[in-house]
Structures are given as C-alpha cells and as structure tokens.
Amino acid sequence: MAGKEANTASSKGKKKEVKKETGLGLSFKKDENFGEWYSEVVVHGEMIEYYDISGCYILRPWAMSIWEVMQTFFDAEIKKMKIKNCYFPLFVSSGVLEREKDHIEGFAPEVAWVTKSGESELEMPIAIRPTSETVMSREFLWQEGHTSFATKEEADAEVLDILELYRRIYEEFLAVPVIKGKKSEHEKFAGGLYTTTVEAFVPNTGRGVQGATSHCLGQNFAKMFEINFENEKGEKAMVWQNSWAYTTRTIGVMIMVHGDDKGLVLPPKVASIQVIVIPVPYKDADTKGIFDACAATVKSLNESGIRAEADFSDNYSPGWKYSHWEMKGVPLRIEIGPKDYAKNQVRAVRRDNATKHDIPMADLVERVKDMLDNIQQSLFDVAKQKRDACIQVVHTWEEFVEALSQKKMILAPWCDDEFFCTIGEYLGECKGQLRNYDRTRIVKLYLNLSKVCYKSLQLEGRFLFCTLCFASGKPAKKWTYWGRSY
C-alpha cells in the first residue's frame, strides 16, 4: 500500500523490520523520519503485515474494509455506465506477451516468470504480470477497467468520466485533494494515445503521488490484436480503447496525508469503525450501569447507520484503549464515565483535532452525525490548505531551482518541449536557461524530477498570452505542474 512511495517496501525479499515495543506509541515522528514513521503506522495501525517476498504484503481487515468502501462506490458508478465486471487468469504466455513488445518494454524488469510445474520444466515459460493489456492480472489488489468504442469521441468522453470518479474517491471518500490533468507525451502510458491523471501531494516530503490514471489507448492495441467491428455502413473498422485503474496506493496516500505522530487518522466515510465507545468505570462507580449505557449508545448509533463499536475488554486501562484506537485512527471516541452516566450524557473526542464535546443522550445521534460530517470536511480542508501552501508559481529557471529545493509543487509556463528523459538528462530541445547548467548537476539534482500533470492555456484565471517558458524562453503553450515524485 504505497509502500514504494514511502520507501517502506523491503528490498531483495527481506521482510521489513519494525521496532517492537511493549507499550503503544510510535518511535519515529512524521516530520523527522517519514519513511520509518510510515512503516510503523501501517503496521501498528493494523493495516498491513509485511511479507517475506519483496513487493508483497498482507492486507489486514482494517485496510481491506477501506478498499471495500471504495470498491462499493466505484462498482455502482461504473455499472451506471453499463460497464460489466469480469475476471482474468493470473498467467500470461510468453508468446502472447511478445505481441505487445513495445508496451511491455518498460515493465520488463518487473516481470516474474514460472519455468517449472512440480519437478517438470515447462516447454514455454509463463509470465506473472503486475500490469498488462494482454490480460489483466490479480497479482496485487487493484481495480482495472478496459473498454472499447466505435469512435474516438466516445472514448474521449469516458476517459474524463472515469477520471472524475477517481477524483471523487480521493476527495469525497479519502479527503485527499488531487489535481486532475494530462500527462506529457514523455510520461504518458506506454503504447497509449494519451494519459489523464489525478495527482496527490505529500507536503511532509514535498513529493507528488500519481493517484490514479485514465488512458485513451487509441487504436494501437486494436491493431496488435485485430479487434474489429462492423460499423453502421457495414464496413470493417477498428475499435478505440480505454484503460483505467487505481490500486491500494490510494490508501497509502490517505495515510501519508492525514496520519500524525499518534498514528492513523481515518476519514469517517471509509473508517470501518466510525465511533468507538469506551467505558470509564472509576472505583466504586456503577460499572454495570456504565457498561449498559455504552451498549445502548452503540445500539442507538448502529440503528441510525453509524458504524460504532464498544471496547469492553477488561485487561487494559481506559488510557491504553484511548491510545490504541487513536493509533488505529477511529474518527470519534465516546467516553462514558460516572459523571457522564449521572448526567445522562457522553463525552465525544475527535481524532483529527482532539477537541472534546459533552453530548446529551437525547441529542446523541444527530450530534454524532454532524460531527462525523464535520470531521470528513475538515480533513479535506486542512489537507487542501497544506497542499495549496506548497504550490509556487515560477516564471524563470532560477525560481524553479529554488522552489524545488524548498519541496514545492511548482506551477510553471512550459513550451511543451521534452528536455528530461528518464535518467534526467537534458535532451537539448529546451535550451534557454538550461545552457548555463552543467549536465552532471542536472542529473544529480533532478533525477527524480517528473512533470506532475499539466493543463492547457488557462488555469485558475492564468492565461498564457505573451508568457514565456520557464526553461527555454520560448512562447509557453501550457501551465504545467512540476515536482519530485514517488
């Protein structure tokens, strides 16, 4: 789950070691050691368990429930678009894979091969693929869609419809602000016509994350695999295809954006438990009465559609339970102690900002619903405010270099000439200010530099009339987001 993004996945098959402690709490702070903090949060927050095979992990129920919420929403939406679900094998034959040689080239280092069945050598090796247009794989948990159309116009329309659904997953469910845009030619999906994307940003690291992509594949794969149809005129024609996907990376992005030094912070819409109810029976208190009140509170909330549970475990103190459920990111904690029981009220504590609110039992359901809605919106607003504070508009190469060193997401006018290849080399098209920089220095400083996404001609009232490219000095064609990325 975004393990690659946070540099948490172990290398060469070694299981990630996470520091074990007898008590609760994290050993690392988010602002001081982001990678180690992330590793602790996803393990101690009971989201995943690392596995002894590189790139693999166990998705635990606390994380799986979030995926199911997203899946339920997305599945209903694509069915409205008359898109149907199907299921494909795990394996791809080498012969079929070879037919998409140009597309697969960029993924070649990641392809795993099966060469034996029992003790017998296979006549032809079989590939296990993390991605493929030949056959969709289930090697790790993701959603992937493939559609075909008679015309490019229909394909273009669906690309944007799906991109909007991805935006909604991030912003409406995960409370993570994203930027919708189009990838440059250099960074588009291999073999596709063009790629659109929703991009998130992690202020703590100053890095962008490709959240989800919606591609128009054009007719490239239709030519490869001879996917034809008979049009209205009775003529043979090739289809126009799209491909779109998101993965459990989305959950990782949510953790990176909202998590804090106490652990996870979950938006109410995706939290499997939205409210945890904890009894606080002091000495000589009416313990049975308090426990009954907690059970009644859970019952009342559940009946109103709120996902609530009570922690009646008797081997931990209330303080330990507070920390435990804070680590797991439950949006709202309700405490009922002797004074609350006597006053026929509860104390509600928000996970996002730790504010406390005393709520009369008579107003319980209405107030809790309002608080959950407020938490959901507040998480998005705070994240957007932090993200926006990191966006810097630049017009010159010197401004660009300075902004990048400050972990900014950069918005700059661009002439649309590709001047960085995959290893960061200057290709010679965008000259201007780049002439003054030694190539070795560019490679060293901007090895992980990538265009996040770009929007054409106008962006939030910014026009490009008489605006020059920040790097080449030539007339700009697009406003483009730049920044280091995972």
Describe the structure.
This protein has 486 residues and is α+β, with helices and mostly antiparallel strands. It folds into three domains: 83-251, BirA Bifunctional Protein, domain 2, CATH 3.30.930; 275-378, Anticodon-binding domain (Rossmann fold, 3-Layer(aba) Sandwich); 391-484, 2-Layer Sandwich (Translation Initiation Factor IF3), CATH 3.30.110.30. 31% of the residues lie in helices and 25% in strands. It has 13 helices and 23 strands. The protein has helices at residues 34-44, 61-80, 94-98, 101-104, 152-173, 220-225, 249-258, 287-303, 318-327, 338-342, 364-389, 397-405, 439-445; strands at residues 48-50, 57-59, 91-93, 112-117, 120-128, 142-149, 179-182, 194-202, 207-218, 228-230, 236-238, 240-247, 275-279, 308-310, 332-336, 345-350, 356-360, 391-393, 409-414, 449-456, 458-459, 462-463, 478-484. The strands form seven sheets. A five-stranded antiparallel β-sheet has the order 6-12-9-8-7. A five-stranded mixed β-sheet has the order 14-13-15-16-17, sandwiched between helices. Strand 10 and strand 11 form a beta hairpin. Helix 2 (61-80) packs antiparallel against helix 5. The longest helix is centred in the last third of the chain and has 26 residues, at 364-389. Mean pLDDT is 83; it is low at 2-22, 132-136, 420-449 and 456-460. One of its GO terms (molecular function) is ATP binding. InterPro entries: aa-tRNA-synt_IIb, aa-tRNA-synth_II, aa-tRNA-synth_II/BPL/LPL, Anticodon-bd, Anticodon-bd_dom_sf, Pro-tRNA-ligase_IIa_arc-type, Pro-tRNA_ligase_II_C, Pro-tRNA_synth_II. One of its GO terms (cellular component) is aminoacyl-tRNA synthetase multienzyme complex. It comes from Handroanthus impetiginosus. This is proline--tRNA ligase.
